[in-house]
């Protein structure tokens, strides 16, 4: 649905996007992760047709945005991170105004507005001024406005930012329903746990480039297979330490008495093999647990420089 190829964008002398390449599958609910300054907002605004790219190519539904920007924009609905309220407009007037921007008038505009306001839970607030709405209601109204022309692609910049838990949950439910109806949704969020709960795919941006991308379930599987192992033994610490240091799946090991913390990059089969080796060596294992993983840990591993790991062991290990 959305294909970025070697996209570059600079502001004066600051290059924000540095040859970024990314593909957003049709029908996906695609999340962008990245620290402040990673290029998320710039990427979203280019995707929405609000910023021109300096070089590279962007296809929206197969349409080259440089060659036919008007046609591409008709496929897109954009929800910014700020509402931009119209002080003297009611909710119904607000929707009618944006409907007219896309050539919808009269009965067709009214029916479309009523349907969308019902979907976002604002049917009872049609006569309210938009400035009287809560932050959560304004965000839902902004989403309804973005849907007025029935776009194929929705682009949302931090849609849950500043919302209370109830409003955040309602918005997530609505995005899930829109995704199931066939809409392609591209969004960014600082709430990484939300991305893992609602997104089908994610991409990690760092300093203007894509560091990792894939289906959420595959990313979580990678996380699970790279999480630390915590091993506790009753005795035989020296034997266990020797085995850990020579195992190809153990990048580093830290020891505190009979407790070991392993940076382990192996699969579940590799875990089972290591446990069996300890048993065969008659090392009594008290516990053998892989730590749970999260998108937060994956994000930090992708965007923060890896610290140098040090093997810590008992002082008498030199007697081995």
UniProtKB/TrEMBL annotation:
Keywords: ATP-binding, Nucleotide-binding, Transport. Signal peptide: none annotated. One of its GO terms (molecular function) is ATP hydrolysis activity. The keyword Endoplasmic reticulum does not apply. The keyword Nucleotidyltransferase does not apply. InterPro entries: AAA+_ATPase (IPR003593), ABC_transporter-like_ATP-bd (IPR003439), ABC_transporter-like_CS (IPR017871), P-loop_NTPase (IPR027417). Residues 2-232 form the ABC transporter domain. It holds the Pfam family ABC_tran. Belongs to the ABC transporter superfamily. This is ABC transporter domain-containing protein. It comes from Stomatobaculum longum.
């Amino acid at each position: 649905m959305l294909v970025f190829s070697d996209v570059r964008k600079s502001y004066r002398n600051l290059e924000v996007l540095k040859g970024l390449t990314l593909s957003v599958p049709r029908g996906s609910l695609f999340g962008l992760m990245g620290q402040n300054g990673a290029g998320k907002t710039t990427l979203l605004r280019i995707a929405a047709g609000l910023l021109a790219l300096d070089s590279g190519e962007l296809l929206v539904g197969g349409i080259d945005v440089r060659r036919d920007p008007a046609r591409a924009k008709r496929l897109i609905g954009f929800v910014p991170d700020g509402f931009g309220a119209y002080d003297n407009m009611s909710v119904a007037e607000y929707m009618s105004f944006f409907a007219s921007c896309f050539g919808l008038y009269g009965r067709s505009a009214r029916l479309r507005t009523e349907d969308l306001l019902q979907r976002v839970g604002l049917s009872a607030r049609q006569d309210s001024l938009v400035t009287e709405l809560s932050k959560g209601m304004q965000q839902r109204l902004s989403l309804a406005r973005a849907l007025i022309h029935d776009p194929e692609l929705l682009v949302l910049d931090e849609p849950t930012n500043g919302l209370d838990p109830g409003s955040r949950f309602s918005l997530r439910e609505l995005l899930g329903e829109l995704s199931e109806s066939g809409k392609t949704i591209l969004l960014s969020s600082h709430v990484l746990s939300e991305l893992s709960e609602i997104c089908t795919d994610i991409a990690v941006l760092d300093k203007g480039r894509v560091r990792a991308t894939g289906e959420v379930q595959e990313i979580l599987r990678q996380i699970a297979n790279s999480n630390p192992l915590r091993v506790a033994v009753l005795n035989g610490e020296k034997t266990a330490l020797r085995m850990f240091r020579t195992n190809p799946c153990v990048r580093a090991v830290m020891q505190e008495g009979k407790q070991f913390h392993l940076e382990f990059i192996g699969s579940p089969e590799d875990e089972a093999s290591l446990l069996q080796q300890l048993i065969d060596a008659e090392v009594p294992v008290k516990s053998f647990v892989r730590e749970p993983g999260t998108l937060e840990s994956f994000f930090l591993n992708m965007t923060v420089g890896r610290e140098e790991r040090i093997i810590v062991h008992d002082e008498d290990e030199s007697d081995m």
